[in-house]
Amino acid sequence: MGFAPDRVRAARIETRQAYDWRDTILYALGVGVGMGESATDPEALRHVYEERLEALPAMATTLAYPSLWLADPVYGLDWRRIVNGAQALAVHRPLPVAATIASVLTVEGIVDKGLDDSGAGRGALVHAVRHLHDAASGDHLATVRQVFFCRGEGGFGGDDLAPIAARPVPGRAPDRLVTIPTRREAALIFRLSGDLNPLHIDPQVAAAAGFRRPVLHGLATFGRAAYAVGGGALTRLEARYSAPVLPGETLRCAIWDQGDERAFQVINLDSGRIALDNGWAAWRERLETRG
């Protein structure tokens, strides 16, 4: 069966997840907080020590996340050819350290990249949005937008949608640089927060998708950048995925102060390629979280 864009547009996926303080710490460790030299850093300990624990805002990207939902045969897509295209997070309330989350995923539209000169598809961009609520209180905690790039599709007619993270970073030198090392086992840890795509652990699956070895989750790179840019006080973060990262590679986050916002870009120092581009963030003073 071929690609069925109308079925993708009609998708509505409800997901619930109960999590506790251990999951909150596991997410932080999965994005490198408290690892290596930061193991005793007071700021890192806020997110990995249960005595005074605070959930990282970017954890919302993994909570009640229907991993591999586009792999359902009803959509007619080859899930091995799907990669992250862009990500946007809006945090409306501080995330609880432990809660049950109710999430509803819908599709806002699909952008058709058309056909190349040979008639092959240039790709399709599936724009999905999830609204996360605390199942007990009903509080709207976060809105997560994600663009999935479906390689090889195209020519079906798409929707006119505003892109995520279209703003370029400033042309001047960054105000600061943050080096972000990743560990060889980083993907093995991060996948336990909910993204179980075998692309990130199985060498054969990675090879079939065109990678020389399993790649780091895009959400893991996003979470690492979130911590570098705004720590535990983020309210918004957007970025475009530009190139994959392999576990063990070292990243460098360039940050520009822009009034009450920050622009950022993440460069892979091993490959020389930009991993996250067109990034921008907003933040607030730390608020008390609820357990």
From TrEMBL:
Domain MaoC-like: 169-272
Residue ranges of every copy of the Peroxisomal multifunctional enzyme type 2-like N-terminal domain listed in the record: 19-152
InterPro entries, sorted: HotDog_dom_sf, MaoC-like_dom, MFE-2_N
SUPFAM superfamilies, per the entry: Thioesterase/thiol ester dehydrase-isomerase
The name this protein goes by in its record: MaoC/PaaZ C-terminal domain-containing protein
Organism: Novosphingobium album
